[in-house]
Amino acid sequence: MRPEVGALVAAAVIFVFFLAVAPAFRSADAFVTVLYQSSTIGIVAVGVGLLMIGGEFDLSAGVIVTSAGLVNSMFCWYFGINLWVGAILSLLFCLAVGFLNGYLVMRTGIPSFLITLGTFFVLQGANLGVTKLVTGSVSSTDVSRIDGYDSLGVIFASSFEIGSVVIWGTVVWWILFVAVATWILRRTRGGNWIYAVGGAADSARAVGVHVVRTKIGLFLAVSFLGWFVGMHNLYRFNTLQAGGGVGNEFLYIIAAVVGGTLLTGGFGNALGVAIGAFIFGMTSLGIVYAGWDPNWFRAFLGVMLLLAVLVNLYVRRLATREARA
Amino acid sequence: MIEMTGVGKSYGPIRALRDIDLRVNAGEVTCVLGDNGAGKSTLIKIMSGLHPHSSGVLKVDGRETVFTSPRQALDLGIATVYQDLAVVPLMEVWRNFFLGSELTGGRYPLAGLRIRDMRRIADEELRKMGITVADIDQPIGTLSGGQRQCVAIARAVYFGARVLILDEPTAALGVRQSGVVLRYVAAARDQGIGVVFITHNPHHAYLVGDHFVVLKLGAMVLDARRGTVTLERLTAEMAGGAELAELAEQLRRPA
């Protein structure tokens, strides 16, 4: 039983549904917009999915995206230096947060849910507090006239045209990250270890798997991808709202679970998480295209999550049912 | 190959194990018997590297050692098969077989798994031990308890274990499946592997053992070679020995 089957069926049903009810949904333009919307959630969701397969959560994944952009933007604005320096500094900052998350979880044995809830609040508060101290308002200053803006923009926030439609680079990055994650999970030792530490950490440790290293690596991967999307947001919009990103951590988790990842770890794959993010993109825009009140989106997402959890539970039963010998 | 002299282990103020002398020789089965809480699991944890010992001397191949991780013990050829944490249920049989010792090709970081080789070898090795699984790609959680135990043993043997520590391999199994596992224990011994067989079943121990150690409340109460001890004696020691005789005296009922 492959984990993404349920999500694939759901995605097809939702796609056909919006094609039927929302005329504005039926264009190539709308489709690439959906892809873009999916990619902004999907990139971090890849990391969160891997982390959940490895048996852990990261609730700070939503706000760290905003923190990444803010560190880059305000550091360079305040000291008047090249944006590249700030981008690298911001990457180091995010990796440090990811390492701290992983280290504390492994060192204390406290569930990652609690540890990262802590970092979530710290970052959320610091985002607003530091931004107000530095700029005197709750948004960061415009970075478009600082050195390095153009070259960073090419990497993180460029777009290109195919025929009449404009495709954002993040879509390509998203596909690339999903491909790399798939390769890691299925075809490398690291991937084997991710499944093992999520499925049965004690068994894994007993046969020589480096449980601590594997899990900390996963937290680092989530922070890296969070940083990546943070860079995209900064170089696409030039300024950031310091309160942004809150709540997105749940979207990542929902994308992973809808994509067939088990909440308890040890099962799932990157393609499923990508389909989960695509379902998110389709519904968030489909509801708008259909002319409905966008508030319904959250209710719909909740229903999807519940259905996915039930399907996952059933799959897990199938997979672990002991044969009579 | 492993030699323990006066080994003990304390968890804070609690002494879980004291003054253990034990030798594990190649091609022999050393049975460690004991009731729940007798210190069997502590002994395994010391030998397999999960916990370091806190007193005494542990020698591997004549060299004094304190293990700080299971990896270290594994590298010296000491493999442990645990009763309940032997496998990762949701992973495929072949992935479980190679977990922690995966075959990779190419150069890091682009080293991919040699999936085809691993599947073939896992299938061959299991067949050699007489285990046939319908599909090497099925999650190992769908195998029976005895089969899972055997996969774990076959894995340890394949990866060149010189000492094989088996933690209650027959505890959760029926008579027939226990027989299957005991035959592998004998097969492993005949290949020259030093086996440490932990059990609370003296009948199973007596079937394959060369050397018997009985633990009680963290200390050794019996240390005997095969031939110097009978099954009755073992059973009696296990059941409580002198204590049991006393209890029988107290509870004696008129005939």
TrEMBL record, chain B:
Protein name from the UniProt record: Simple sugar transport system ATP-binding protein
Key word ATP-binding present: yes
One Pfam assignment: ABC_tran
Residues of the ABC transporter domain: 2-242
Organism of this sequence: Actinoplanes campanulatus
InterPro entries: AAA+_ATPase, ABC_carbohydrate_import_ATPase, ABC_transporter-like_ATP-bd, ABC_transporter-like_CS, P-loop_NTPase
PROSITE patterns with a match to the protein in the record: ABC_TRANSPORTER_1 (PS00211), ABC_TRANSPORTER_2 (PS50893)
PANTHER family, per the entry: CARBOHYDRATE TRANSPORT ATP-BINDING PROTEIN MG119-RELATED (PTHR43790), SUGAR ABC TRANSPORTER ATP-BINDING PROTEIN (PTHR43790:SF8)
GO molecular function terms listed in the Swiss-Prot or TrEMBL record: ATP binding; ATP hydrolysis activity
Keywords: ATP-binding, Nucleotide-binding, Sugar transport, Transport
ATP-binding keyword on record: yes
